[in-house]
Structure formats: C-alpha cells, structure tokens
Amino acid sequence: MPRVPSAAAAHIGQRIADARRRYSRTQDQLAADTGIDSSNIRSYESGRAMPSIHTLIRIAIALDTEPGYFLDDLTLEQFAARKAG
Asked: DSSP for 32-65?
C-alpha cells in the first residue's frame, strides 16, 4: 500500500526545510550531520514521510533548533491522510 502523506507531514517537512535553509545547510549536509540518509531528509522535507520523534530530535540538534519548532501550529486534523489523486 503506498504512503498517503498528511498535512502534518507536509507542515513538519516545511519546518525542517526552513530551519535547514536558515542555517545555510544542504540536505546532504544535514544528512551527514544527523546520520540520516539524505533520501529520508528529502522525503521528510517534501512531506512524503513523517519523521519519528527520535529523528526530529536528531534534526533539531543538528540545526540548533528546539524540537517543538517542528510541531508549532499543528492541529489534529492535519494528521488525517490526504486523499490521493
């Protein structure tokens, strides 16, 4: 079954990308700093995958950002899967 991204994954991914750009880091640099595969970083940033709490903390540490920043302004409704197509 293919993954159906949620608005929450897109929101968190956008926050990761914003923080990464604020520190002038590339996706590959963030991957190297965190030990997370760069394809996973791309999936998180595009909203195709939802990072675990453990992963969010690793990213937050690498970007000198509070982990809660990635969750700011999320609502429960954003966790409902988007309809494909």
From this structure: HHHT--HHHHHHHHHTSSPPPHHHHHHHHHHTT-
